[in-house]
Amino acid sequence: MPVSPACATGEPARAAQPPAGGFEERACRIAAAERVVQGLDPQARQAAGELAAALGDCHDTVLRAFVTRLRSDERGRELLFEIVEAPEVYAALAKAA
Length: 97
What we know:
Blueprint: H1 23-38, H2 42-71, H3 74-83, H4 87-96
């Protein structure tokens, strides 16, 4: 994943709030965290991988519940079609499917 100039330090962001930026900034945070994890000892790397997998599974379950509910309602379907225009939303929903 290419790193933007704003993230050239390679340090993961430690913000308590979601970043103010867009997709590129979030992708940069992920890439920086991946670089840090690759430098960990094997046991820590495995634990980080399991944490990421568990969080991903939880995230996917929640997204599927949202989509199921939205699809069950006419206005919900309209809203769903509107929000999937955002590339991140589309990618997250495609992954969770």
